[in-house]
Amino acid sequence: MSANTGAAAQAQAQIQVNAPPLLDLTIDNITPNTVRINSQSGDARLTYLMSRLVTHLHDFARETRLSTDEWMAAIEFLIGCGKICSDVRNEFILLSDVLGLSLLVDNINHPKPPGSTEGSVLGPFHTHDAPELPNGATMTSDPEGEAMLAICTVRDTQGRPVPGVKVDIWETDSSGRYDVQHADRDAPSERCVMVTDAEGRFWFRGIKPVSYPIPNDGPVGKLLARLNRHCWRPAHVHFMFEKEGWDHLVTALYIRGDPYETSDAVFGVKQSLIVDLEKVDKETAAKYGVEEGIWLLKYDFVLTTKEETENLRDQLASEALQKLGLRLKLVDHLPVPDLD
After folding, report:
1. Which region, left, alpha or beta, applies to residue 91 given φ > 0 means left and ψ of -120 to 50 means alpha?
2. Interval 307-319: pLDDT, tens
3. What are the residues whose beta carbons fall under 8 Å from the beta carbon of 216, sequence distance 6 or more?
4. What is the pTM assigned to this prediction?
């Protein structure tokens, strides 16, 4: 045995010796014992997260009287999610989306004061290879799509323009598929990155969004089928805004009147994000160098500063914890047990 191996074995043995004794575990005492042995990291937030996760997970098993077959089916389901994941497909994000967890976490972490743009779900098809394009550029290579001009502004809550914001934009093609869903994809399409100008503006040419099904050939799609839920999303365009000192915003604009507007498979639609498409008139066509009569999407996005969001997040967290009767304090804007 090498010196390093021997030292590692001694360290592991010491950890085991110092661990709380776990004997005669039962349905009634497994939870507090698991919480105890998970509470040795010295990291208050990790300890709290694991304590609540184990408590709720065990309570779920006790409340439902979870069978061995059901437990194994859940394990196989998660294995299946992992197997189908790739660099361009994340089944676990999709699972989080259809369970409503993605939207819940976003709403908790990025609360919006009145008048600011609300968030929506990221979805599983954002990539990091979108080209940076100048204002007015075309981000689509789909000849079948209905041409659309998008004219947008980014302002703060006082109505002032916010220049220099990185804006990530992506949508499906006219067949309802993202570029990464095409096996012969050799370059990004229907996606780009832009930067707002000195007046907080950005504009681009894309195509009119269409409704589409989320991937239903994997474990998440099979789960939706078992639940008798459809797998469709209403027509939309994704946007993500980033700038130092400003709250990170992931959102989308949804086209009014879509048949799935009120039953989005991933719960992303909010009233404030539903928009009406117009048609480009002669004056607008001349100004932006596009064809008269194509579709027109107009929207004024309102960002909040990081400080504004953090203050509101802390306020809402404190109110929620007080209602629950929990003795917790906020450390780095996250609750941990208050042991003082």
Report:
1. alpha
2. 999 999 999 999 9
3. 222, 224, 225, 231
4. 0.88
